Amino acid sequence: MSPDHNSTRHDRDGVARAALALLDEVGLADLSMRRIASRLDVQPSALYWHFTSKQELLADLADRITSTIPRDDADVLTTARSIRDALFTYRDGAELVLSTYALQLGSSQAQTALEDSLHRVGAEDAPERAVALLHFILGHATLVQQRMHADSHGALPGGDAVDVTAGLDRIFDLGVTALARDTVDDEAGDRRLR
């Protein structure tokens, strides 16, 4: 098979969809260009017709994961929860988005959604506060996904009797609320954050 032939069998969207399906099956650590190519029954070089590097592909996947974040008039906590939920959609989704965010690849859909929510409640430092909230959300979601993954392999103490995610929703809400709380001074504004 020549790369020209392979590249016409799949388009950029198809490659990305196959990569997301593999991410769910094997996780980020085992998501390789070779494995994606094998899934599509092409040579790995064929993938480079659509993505110039694995980092470009991962950035596209991160954008696809965060594209489900609603861009409406949601309050800060609801926006933060929707970002977390989007990260949980795929195995290692939080780690993938975190790694592309750390390298400043892909779009900033999550950060923009947080910034918009913060502007709506009168935060004068919305851009900086959105970054702080996004760091918290990415870290928290990564921790939860790693615990769940370790638990699924029996790698955590306590066995089946322990819910490794118990209480983490409350901790998440407390963290988001604490980071967003002093964006407004009046009591009515504080209620909008919840």
SS-derived structural category: mainly alpha
The major pleated sheet works out as: none
> What is the N-to-C order of secondary-structure elements (H for helix, E for strand)?
HHHHHHHHHHH
Poorly predicted runs of 5 or more residues: 1-8, 184-191
Q: Average pLDDT across residues?
A: 87
Radius of gyration: 19 Å
Supply the CATH class of the largest domain.
Answer: Mainly Alpha
Number of strands: 0
CATH architecture verdict of the largest domain: Orthogonal Bundle
User: What share of the residues does DSSP label as strand, in percent?
Assistant: under 5%
Compact overview of the structure:
The protein has 194 residues and is mostly helical. It has eleven helices and no strands.
Can you offer a commentary on this structure?
With about 190 residues, the protein is mainly α. It has two domains: about 1-50, Arc Repressor Mutant, subunit A; about 55-194, Tetracycline Repressor, domain 2. It contains eleven helices and no strands. The protein has helices spanning about 5-10, 10-25, 35-40, 45, 55-65, 75-85, 95-100, 110-120, 125-150, 170-180, 185-194. The termini are far apart. Mean pLDDT is about 85; it is low at about 1-10 and about 185-190.
List keywords for this structure.
194 residues, mainly alpha, Arc Repressor Mutant, subunit A, Tetracycline Repressor, domain 2, 2 domains, disordered N terminus
